[in-house]
Every structure is written in structure tokens, then in C-alpha cells.
Description:
The protein is α/β, with parallel strands linked by helices and 407 residues long. It folds into 2 domains: 5-30 and 299-406, Aspartate Aminotransferase, domain 1; 41-296, Aspartate Aminotransferase, domain 2. Helix content is 40%, strand content 17%. The protein contains 14 helices and 17 strands. The strands form 5 sheets. Strands 4-10-9-8-7-5-6 form a 7-stranded mixed sheet, with helices on both faces. The chain has a 4-stranded antiparallel sheet with strand order 13-14-17-16, with helices on one face. The model has no long low-confidence stretch (mean pLDDT 97).
Amino acid sequence: MSLNIDKIRSDFPALNQRINDDKPLVYLDNAATTLKSKPVIEAVNQHYQMESANIHRGVHYLSELATQKYEDTREKVKRFINAPKKEQIVFTSGTTAAINLVAQSYGKTYLQEGDEILITHMEHHSNIVPWQILCEQVGCVLKVAPINDDGEVIMDEYLAMLTEKTKFVSFVYVSNSLGTINPAKQMIDAAHAVGAIVLVDAAQAVAHMSVDVKDLDCEFMTFSGHKLFGPTGTGVLYGKEELLAKMPPVMGGGDMILNVTFEKTTYNRPPYKFEAGTPHIAGVIGLGAAIDYVSELGLEEIAAYEQQLLDYATNSLDNIPGIRFFGTSKHKTAIISFLIDDVHPHDIGSILDLQGVAIRAGHHCTQPVMQRFDIPATGRASFSIYNTHEDIDTLAQAIHKVKEVFV
């Protein structure tokens, strides 16, 4: 079954607008955040308009309805990533919060001075800085597996860096700045062979491919709602049951307790132990609607269509003189990072914006990647289910306009 792109585009109201002297919007900044569909917007609006109540605490109708919808999303996430139990699904404000939670709960409790944490050179800052903070706190050592000129982890180097000192491995499933799809299963199996715990950052993966935590067998996995056509401020941490059970909470307050006295507090069971305070209820309900939307389309169909977009875009842009690509792995999602001659990426982004084309220009929160390629930044076009060949043609025309202005 192929995707009905016209129908999909009609589901995203933002695509109907015209900007900058009546130019139709071409949205190619999906790796930063995806647009929101009508079902997601309607689900959020429904909560705020008709069902706005706190969850888990009330016995009245609205509270019970909000609680049911909130917990329904937990079940949807469980099925979406093939987790064994819904109690293994912790709601957070996003991938960044989830990684920090693991670092400050599991890491600070169970890692010791001299233990090694292994990441890769392509990590987002949110999968670097929390581990640096942890290393400063407990004396761990942060190791970094290098990448090659195509933007791929050098597997021989990665495997050689796994030793009996390696206690934790954390890596991105799909690079947000290069598009590279890492061989996650191979990397996890190798880490387990030396007894390491593994976290997979799937923020850039879940909207483009199937992520199966049972098959991966990772201890932790994280993703953000807003990169899955869901609301901002929502995210998921999946954890193996036995680890979540023994990890201490990192925030205290309502909903993460069973009983409080001035002498002692008894904590709630997972996942609630990690969900202190009133959560982003409407956002989580919206995330459930986003998962329904993607699941109905089918991740295999999405992956196949986006591969077509990537192939078409690569061939179209490769014909432009002076363009350079960064992230040329044969296994990648629909992300193209590029430079044009000596034009600064911010200038590229500004000229493209005047033509109605939205890309991202900068270091994409992966400054070590930019340092690896000895560049300050790139332009990044990232594609999604509502993009078309016509969008790519407009992008190519806009890049030619950049060359007219600056070259």
C-alpha cells in the first residue's frame, strides 16, 4: 500500500499557508520538529476545551476521563515500540529529559569512579552533556567512538573500545545532522558481551522506521513526541523492568509517592516513581493521537516513501556545482546536510527562507560533528511524509538563487 500524499498534506494545516511575498511554504526542517496533524491538534484542543482536569487524583468524571486517555497513550507507546509492559513506559518532557533521568538515577547510583561510558562522535549534545556531568559527579571516564568520512561509526574502533571497564553505552539510532542509521542491534550485542548497559536515543528514528525494543534488547530507549508529529514537551523513556524497579527517583513531589510522613516517604512503583508533579496531560494525549496517525499510515510505507524522497533529492542537488554533502552513508534516513561553495549556512538558510523554503542552518546541536569535518555548520534539509518531489524541485531552485546572490 502506497501513501496518499495529497491526503496526508491536507491533514497538516501549516502546509496551506503562504509566506514571504506569497510563497507556498516548503517545510524541510523535520529533523528539528515535525508539523502537527489535525487529529493531534483536535486531541489537544478536546482536552483543553472539554476534558481539562488533573489525572490520577480525582474521582470525578473529567479527572477519570483525562486519566484514561493519558494512560491509553502509555499503552499505545508500549505497542508502538513493542515493549513487554506499559509500566516500562515513563513519560518525560522529551529525549533530553529522559537521558538526564537515566544519567542521574541509574548512572549516579550504579556507576563508580573509573567506570567507562562509551558514546559516539555523532551524538546530539543531549547525549553528551548529561554524561559529562555524571563523569564530573562520580569520576567516570567518557570515551568516544570515532566516525569516518561518510559519517558512520567506525565499527572496528567501537568494538575495540568495549572493555571490562565499559559499564554504560549510549548512542543515537539515527544521526540528526548526518542522517546515518547506526547498526543498533550489532552495537547493543557487542556492548552486552562486555556486560555494559545500553541506552538508545531514538528521537530521529521513531518517525521514519520501526523501533522494536524487544528485538534490540536495549536496557533503555528514548524519543520525543514533537519529532513524531506530536506536541512539544512530551517524550518517552523505555526501561527494562528490573532496572526501573531499582532506580531511585530524581524528582520528588506528587504522583511519585505512596505515602509521605516527615520521617519517611515511600515511593510509588514505576513508571509513576519517575513522573513527579502534574504532567503535560494534553501533550501526552496528543502524542497518543500522533502514534495512531503514524501507525495507520504504516512505518514500512513511510520508510519506503522517504527513501524515494532522499534518492530524488540527492540526485537533484548533486547536479548543482559547488555543493558538498556531509553524511553519505548508504544506510541513512531522509536528511541531507550540505554546504555551497564558501557561502555561510546562515546565508543559505536566509535566502532559502525568502523563497519559502524552511531548512535548518547551524551546527544542529552536534558541534563535535562539525569539528570532525572542520566546518562551522551546515544547511540541513530533512524530509517527511508530507514532502513531495515538487518541494525538492523548489529547494533546488532556491539553492540556485543562493549561488546567484553569493557566488
